[in-house]
């Protein structure tokens, strides 16, 4: 259940109660694609890094180790030793990325595994069954993620099919939740809005899917090549038609600036691989701006990454040492930097929530937007 506590303009401060705990919103989900954060960070570490929600990938876990294996070991919560909420995506984006290996029809999508070329079929029912086996808190509806730019007529047909798929997802998840022995009989479903960058298709699709009862609704198909301005425009068009009493999730976004701007436009929930991926290449987010540890100037720098940060990395190690670890190819360097970036993102969302609580979110945005976008 979503509870709106306070609103400043379109920006929302709320809570979302789930079977695995209450999420303080706005929130950022830490991406553990294959039930692990890339860079050697465990579920136990995430508690210290102030993570509220972890996101796992249906497609990858179905291929390896297999959702039946995860189910046999107690679902994702038992498998990865994480007690808090978990959201699983539906596999739709991965199918989108396999454009040369897929065939889409009304029943679902036939594609080949990127691991071994094995032929796989996934539709709404298959996606719901896999996610039920994983036992996640929130299951994402199976959809088609449309590329940007996309041809109008194809986009229209695709959004209509995605709406039909959502109805099938709702029906199938209700059936699975009612079965004896289901791992999480209170598993929630989020529908996904699509429509490329066409305002009329986005709005019409949102009007259709909001009539299908879901515990939350996402805006999908963004952060796939369009400009930030185009993305913000789509959010502005869709948001007025999203249910006020449900969480709004912007999928795959983004930079700290993207998050600040999207919260301003009414978004509650985010995920992105950027903090962990960038960290593994030496790019870290700080309260002074974006720092590239590969630069020579850090070779003899004894200061922590961010003097105002209290993460395990900043409390214990210097920029010079971290740069050395990266240059030497030591896994410890990647692990520490990933921990820092995740702590930074989770701390950023804490500060956003505090600013909303205190009625000073616009002031907060004006203060931090230029800083967090600066490359040091």
UniProtKB/TrEMBL annotation:
One Pfam family named in its UniProt record: TGT
MF-aspect GO terms: metal ion binding; tRNA-guanosine(34) queuine transglycosylase activity
UniProt keyword Zinc, yes or no: yes
Gene Ontology cellular-component annotations: cytosol
Active site per database record: 89, 271
InterPro entries attached to this UniProt entry: ArchSynthase1/Queuine_TRR, TGT, TGT-like_sf, tRNA_ribo_trans-like
E.C. code: 2.4.2.29
Residue ranges annotated for the tRNA-guanine(15) transglycosylase-like domain, each copy included: 10-369
Record pathway: tRNA modification; tRNA-queuosine biosynthesis
Chain positions recorded as Zn(2+) binding sites: 309, 311, 314, 340
Gene3D superfamilies: Queuine tRNA-ribosyltransferase-like
Superkingdom, natural source: Bacteria
Swiss-Prot/TrEMBL catalytic activity: 7-aminomethyl-7-carbaguanine + guanosine(34) in tRNA = 7-aminomethyl-7-carbaguanosine(34) in tRNA + guanine
Keywords per UniProt: Glycosyltransferase, Metal-binding, Queuosine biosynthesis, Transferase, tRNA processing, Zinc
Cleavable signal peptide: none
Cofactor(s) needed: Zn(2+)
Cofactor binding description: Binds 1 zinc ion per subunit.
Chain residues that bind substrate: 89-93, 143, 194, 221
Function: Catalyzes the base-exchange of a guanine (G) residue with the queuine precursor 7-aminomethyl-7-deazaguanine (PreQ1) at position 34 (anticodon wobble position) in tRNAs with GU(N) anticodons (tRNA-Asp, -Asn, -His and -Tyr). Catalysis occurs through a double-displacement mechanism. The nucleophile active site attacks the C1' of nucleotide 34 to detach the guanine base from the RNA, forming a covalent enzyme-RNA intermediate. The proton acceptor active site deprotonates the incoming PreQ1, allowing a nucleophilic attack on the C1' of the ribose to form the product.
Quaternary structure note: Homodimer. Within each dimer, one monomer is responsible for RNA recognition and catalysis, while the other monomer binds to the replacement base PreQ1.
Family: Belongs to the queuine tRNA-ribosyltransferase family.
Name of the protein in its database record: Queuine tRNA-ribosyltransferase
Protein species of origin: Harryflintia acetispora
């Amino acid at each position: 259940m979503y509870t709106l506590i306070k609103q400043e303009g379109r920006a929302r401060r709320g809570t979302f109660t789930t079977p695995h705990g209450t999420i303080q919103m706005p929130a950022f989900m830490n991406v553990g694609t294959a039930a692990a954060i890339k860079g050697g960070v465990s579920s136990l570490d995430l508690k210290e890094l102030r993570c509220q929600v972890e996101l796992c990938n249906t497609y990858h876990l179905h291929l390896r180790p297999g959702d039946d294996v995860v189910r046999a070991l107690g679902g994702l919560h038992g498998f990865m030793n994480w007690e808090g909420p978990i959201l699983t995506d539906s596999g739709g984006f991965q199918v989108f990325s396999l454009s040369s290996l897929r065939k889409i029809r009304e029943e679902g999508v036939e594609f080949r595994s990127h691991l071994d070329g094995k032929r796989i079929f996934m539709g709404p029912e298959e996606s719901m069954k896999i996610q039920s086996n994983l036992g996640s808190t929130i299951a994402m509806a199976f959809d088609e993620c449309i590329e940007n730019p996309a041809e109008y007529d194809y986009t229209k047909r695709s959004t209509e099919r995605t709406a039909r798929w959502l109805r099938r997802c709702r029906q199938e998840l209700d059936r699975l939740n009612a079965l004896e022995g289901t791992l999480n009989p209170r598993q929630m479903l989020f529908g996904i809005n699509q429509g490329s960058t066409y305002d009329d298709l986005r709005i019409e699709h949102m009007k259709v899917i909001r009539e299908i009862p879901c515990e939350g609704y996402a805006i999908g198909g963004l952060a796939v090549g369009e400009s930030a301005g185009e993305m913000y425009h789509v959010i502005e068009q869709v948001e007025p038609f999203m249910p006020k009493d449900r969480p709004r999730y912007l999928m795959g976004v983004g930079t700290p600036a993207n998050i600040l701007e999207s919260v301003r436009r009414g978004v509650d929930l985010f995920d992105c691989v950027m903090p962990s991926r960038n960290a593994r290449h030496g790019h870290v987010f700080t309260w002074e701006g974006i720092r590239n540890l590969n630069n020579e100037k850090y070779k003899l720098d004894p200061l922590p990454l961010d003097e105002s940060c209290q993460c395990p990395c900043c409390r214990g190690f210097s920029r010079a040492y971290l740069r050395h670890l990266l240059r030497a190819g030591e896994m410890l360097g990647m692990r520490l930097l990933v921990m820092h970036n995740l702590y930074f993102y989770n701390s950023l969302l804490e500060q956003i929530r505090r600013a909303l609580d205190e009625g000073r979110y616009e002031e907060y945005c004006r203060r931090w937007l230029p800083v967090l976008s600066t490359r040091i």
